[in-house]
Amino acid sequence: MFSLLFFALLCATCLAKPGLVHFSYSRAVGGGSGSSFSSEGQGRITAVRVWEISNAYITGIQLRYDYVWSQKLGRSYGSAKEMVLFDNEVITQVSGKYHSNYIYQVIFVTSRGRSLMVGQPYQRSFNFYPTHPEAELRLLSGRYNGNGITSLGAHWGVVFMDQSNSTDNSP
C-alpha cells in the first residue's frame, strides 16, 4: 500500500511541472463606469496607439497583434500617439495616472527602455508590471463610457515561441 501511495505521489509531482506557464494580472484602477472591454489578438503585441483629449483624459487605446490591429478600446478622438515595437521588443510596464472618473495618463515601457507617454499627470499614480521576469503585456482590460477610458487593467504572460516554424535546418 505504501509503495502505491509513493508511486502516485511521484507521478503527480512529475505531471505538475511548476513554472511552465506564467500569467499575472495587474488589478484595474479607476472608477469603472461604463461598458467593459478586453483587447484580443493573435501573436505578440507589436504596436500601440493612444488617443486623448488634449489637457484632459485618455479616450481610447488600440493594440496591434503581429500585423493586425485590435478593436479600439474606448473611442478615437483627434490624432493618435503611436509606438511601433522593434523585433523582439515587448511591453514590460504600463504606468500612468487616474482619478475616480477617467484614466488621465498612460505610459507604455518596453524591454528596450523606450516609452510612449500620453495624457496628463493628474491625480493618483498606477504602475503595472508582470510578476515573472520573462512575461510581457498580453492584453488590456477595463471599462469605458461614451467619453473615454474609465478603468484599466493589464494581463501579463510568457510567450513561448513555436519552434516548429524555425528555418534552422540543423539537427
Automatic annotation (TrEMBL):
Organism field: Scomber scombrus (Atlantic mackerel)
InterPro entries for the chain: Jacalin-like_lectin_dom (IPR001229), Jacalin-like_lectin_dom_sf (IPR036404), PolyBind_ProtTraffic (IPR052321)
SUPFAM superfamilies: Mannose-binding lectins
Signal peptide: 1-16
UniProt GO molecular function: carbohydrate binding
Jacalin-type lectin domain span: 23-158
Name of the protein this chain belongs to: Zymogen granule membrane protein 16-like
Record's keyword terms, sorted: Lectin, Signal
Domain of life according to the entry: Eukaryota
